[in-house]
Amino acid sequence: MPLDLSDESHYDRTRLRQWARGRARSAGVDRRDLLKLFAVGAAAGSLGLAGGGTAAAAPALGVGAGAAPGIVKPLPPDLFTIRGTNAETNFASLRGTGHLTPIDRFFVRNHTSTPRVDVGTWRLKVWGDGLAAGPVEFSYERLRSLRAVERTLFIECAGNGRSFYSTQQGQPVTGTAWTLGAIGVGHWRGARLSDVLRLAGVTRGAVDVLPRGLDDEVVANGVNLGRVRRPLPVAKALDDVLLAYEMNGRPLPPDHGGPVRLVVPDWVGISSIKWVGDIEVSGEALYSPWNTDMYRLFGPNHPAQGSAPLTRQTLKSAFELELGATVPVHRTRLLTGRSWSAAAPVTRVEVSTDGGGHWRRARLHDSPRRGGWVRWSVPWTPRTAGATAVLARASDGTGRTQPETAVHNTQGYLFDAVVRHPVTVV
Ligand SMILES: Nc1nc2c(c(=O)[nH]1)N[C@H]1C(S)=C(S)[C@@H](COP(=O)(O)O)O[C@H]1N2
Ligand SMILES: [Mo]
After folding, report:
1. Which of 108, 159, 248, 424 is deepest in the core (most CB within 10 A)?
2. Is residue 210 in some structural domain?
3. For the CA of 268, the nearest atom of ligand 1
4. Where in the sequence is the signal peptide annotated (predicted)?
5. Residue with CA at minimum distance from ligand 1 atom 12
6. What is the pLDDT at residue 287?
7. Which of 400, 416, 397 is nearest to 408 (CA)?
8. 163 Cα to the center of ligand 2, angstroms
9. Chain-wide mean pLDDT for the chain?
């Protein structure tokens, strides 16, 4: 009986086993190089590549505050915090904005830098032994002539919230030290990946689909990992994945993958390959560093070989307030924020303004919907001056509530614990 790979965890476990036994094919990285990487990783505790090319504590070399890290759009300091080649959305700047994250404040996560891709000469090449015949190319015009779908979905980095492993749980992690702003909700318009794959002649024998970006090759620890790419099981690829060419009603901007990117609902941000140039459709299992050494859970809480590759994002909440904000005593203000989950709509949000002693239900301003977030608010009148913390805790339709502590992993992925947001009352 053929394996059912439409089940995500089954898929991942199967690929992982196959990969560990050398039975999945490397998509472009020499096995020797991968082993070399693993050796470096073992010595260093991990690669330091997790969701970013920079170590948590060390600022990226040559990139000072406000310096242009290869991102095209303006990055004013009130809207963004620059972290290496990436720009984190300042959550406070979302206050008063709508359900969608405006493009001028949508986070950017670049392994290298934003390439300028010409729409006129751009082609999407679909190829591989999982197709009935030879490669098929799609121009931008052809892609736009296919039946279009529109969806509102968040894209969130697997490492969003990573810095709280160290600041809140005292546990070291590697990777970009995001607070909670490595997420944005966009309204995407595009073609269905499934339509494109069918037009290209995908066969029943196809197993994995590997989209690859047109940005520069990634070099880490002296090893060229090649272009950013991460295999998707064909079941997910044929299910709900978009090839998006519009974001919030505008042509997809360069920093967010223009002219065309993948949008993979619910899955970690790395799945949503930007500037997609080609897609391999394979009859064999594929692996790349982005589903073997990176984007898996390593450390004492996880299997010795690491967890299965990450698929779905988790559950989080954030205040639309600076960390360490100063607020006046005896004055009533509206605390606002957002909560989101990849598993099911967020159904309840509770807020504590006394460091976690008492909890109140927040008022929800969006009807709970899969793929988006809910905005919420709760009034607060601080009664005593001094340092305190405000906390927000969400529950989703699966019955899950954010825990007090997130399960540590060396690369700091999937932080889901309630964040103690420091505030000073004066
Ligand atoms: N080609 C390419 N695709 C990519 C990346 C990249 O560096 N290159 N970064 C990935 C990661 S880690 C994330 S979190 C999302 C970020 O999307 P955004 O920059 O539009 O917010 O894009 C993903 N797609
Ligand atoms: Mo990411």
Report:
1. 159
2. no
3. 14
4. none
5. 270
6. 86
7. 416
8. 14
9. 88
Tokens 């000072």 locate to 64
How many A from CA of 268 to the centre of ligand 2? Answer: 7
Distances (CA, A) of 184 to 140, 156, 373: 25, 7, 9
Residue with tokens 């990634």: 218
Specify the number of domains making up the chain: 1
| Ligand with the closest atom to the CA of 274 | 1
Tell me the C-alpha distance between 66 and 79, whole Å: 12
What's the one-letter identity of residue 408? H
Confidence class of residue 85 from pLDDT cuts 50, 70 and 90? very high
- Cα separation, 288 vs 104, whole angstroms: 32
- What lies within 8 Å, CB to CB, of 1 at 6+ separation is none
CATH number assigned to the domain comprising residue 373: 2.60.40.650
Q: Is 415 domain-assigned?
A: yes
Average pLDDT over residues 71-81: 97
Whether the bond into 233 is cis, omega within 30 of 0: no
Give residue 34 CA to ligand 1 midpoint distance, Å.
Answer: 22
The confidence score (pLDDT) of residue 47 equals 35
Q: What is the pLDDT of residue 34?
A: 54
pLDDT at 222: 87
Lowest-pLDDT range of 8-17, 133-142, 340-349 = 8-17
- Ligand 1 center to 157 CA (angstroms): 8
Question: Residue 201 falls within a domain, yes or no?
Answer: no
Hey, which of 156, 270, 295, 413 would you mutate to test ligand 1's pocket, going by the most ligand atoms within 8 Å of its Cβ? 270
∠183-193-85 over CA atoms, to 5°?
A: 35
- Residues 372-379 have a mean pLDDT of 97
Range of the structural domain that residue 351 is part of: 315-425
336 domain-assigned: yes
